[in-house]
TrEMBL record:
This is DMP19 family protein. It comes from Gemmata algarum. It holds the Pfam family DMP19. InterPro entries: DMP19_C. The lineage of its organism: Bacteria, Pseudomonadati, Planctomycetota, Planctomycetia, Gemmatales. Residues 361-463 form the DNA mimic protein DMP19 C-terminal domain.
Amino acid sequence: MLQSVLVAATLATVWAVWTVWKRVRPKARAMKQYARSLVADPDVHRELDEEYERRYAHRMAARSAAEAAPLLTPAELPAAIAELLDTDPIRHDAAEIRIKKVLAAAEPHLLAAIDDPRATWDQDESQGVPTAPAQRVVGLLAKLPSRALGDRIGHLVGRPEWSVSDPAIKARTALGRTDQLPFVLEQLAKQSQPAQEGVELAIEQGWAEPEFLDGIRVWAERTALDPALPFSYWAVGFYARHGGAAALEALSSPQVLSVANNRTVHAALKQLNEHGVRLDAKVVRPLLDAALTHTGIWPWNCTFGPALRALAATEPEAALRMAEEYLNRPDDPHHSDAARFIQETAGLPEPYDIKPPAGMELTEDERTVLGHLTDCINLYGEICNGGLSQYFFNFAGGDWRRHVAALRAIGFETGAAALEEAARVVHPDGASTDRGTRIAQYAALSERQEKRLDELSPLFWSRAPRLRFMLRHRELFARLRAARER
């Protein structure tokens, strides 16, 4: 048994490393090629950069002016709609910002704009416009609880090339009408997120007809409990929320909470946790053991977190000990779930969600603590996205000395030493703080040197250093989370 567990864990670790390498390594190679083109032809790239900066500055100025502008009056709305349909990105961006501020009043104008000849689904590539005029109109309407939208664009569900298919599915589903039930059930069976959001919107707004809801409830129950039907995570949640006590009883049955359930066990545990159903530890422990044994195999790779939370309801100290064990294993697939559990148990925010709200009183020392963690979050964001190659190629790499200091401040000495080594791989005196010079340094790296950057990058995938730092300042971060939630 122990041997099979070790083999499964080893295979899962190899798979995880290979998956991340496939994501990061090709990106690094493409970045190296781009860096070398920048060095080979700096004048062309400098002109492109300057043009981009000019357009960006103009666009940001227009956006700031739109955000500061007074609310549009009813008489001004038609002109704003016309600018929304304009092909000039600066004009239509500014119009969109102003219309958003009076969205409810703009609804009739936006609905009428769908029939405007200028509201095409064609993107103007020559202007570098990322959206079509009609797409911008529908995008704004989709932010409203607009029941009329379903009748206006519901027939466009088959036009994904227009980027309208998802809004059309959601709007048509949100009609909440029984005559749309066959269409909705077909979409839900495909696990369509827009259809799921449409059902939730119909319920929230009171648009859902009783027969419509009954049909979805019956489908959700069958989908949640019948192993012959395709799995749907959303169906389990809908059944738990709308099926009453009978649904929670069914989801906590021995048939569902079984090591033989390779279909819904993780989803059922999550719903039972959210609805406050306490499970006997004798029921939960076999599920935890299965999650640890079948690491990397669905659904057991998604079961460790909810099973740990279910165990915590009756044996909190045992659950915390298990989480701390896996927090110390950054290469283990359960590392992130363990970190999240400890973070939640301590009442801490996500590490990336630590900006204090306006008006929160902080001492100078507390601001320093937040500054160190913010620097580390910026560093981690770059490295976890594209490795140390991306970090030094982008603007963030110019701050590597400050980031080394921040890593030391949070107690991650190994990370600080690795970042210092990486900076000296880029250049013996340390990577330049000037980005142009640093790109030239990076472009000149040998394959062996870039491989060393790849070898150092995984040190920064662990959540443990940041979490331990937050735990050392638990009162501050718990207070910050409470302030943000208020």
